[in-house]
Design goal:
The chain is mostly helical. It has 4 helices and 2 strands. The chain has a two-stranded antiparallel sheet. The longest helix has 12 residues. The two termini are 38 Å apart.
Length: 94
Amino acid sequence: MAYSENAPELESKLHNHFSEKRLNLVNLRKEFFEVTIDEIEKWAEANKTPITFTKVAEAREYRETHQIRKQGKKAISKATTKEIPASIESLFDE
C-alpha cells in the first residue's frame, strides 16, 4: 500500500511514468502494471515525491481464511455453517 497526500495526482504521475510497463494495452482503464515496489520507491525518491509505503498489509480475513484451510475441511465446514442462519425467517429478525 502507498499513502500520499494527493493520491489522484500521484496515480496520474505513476501511470505516465510506468506506461511502458502497462499489462493491458487494449483497455487502458484496467490499471495493472508490471512494476515492483522498489521501482516505485526509486521513482519517488528521484522525483522528491513523498509516499508512505506499507509493505505488509494487515489482510486479517485473508490470513484467517488461510489458517482455516490449513486446519482442513472439517474446520471449513464448521466455520461456514455457524455463519448460515438456521432458517430464512431469521434473516429478517431484528
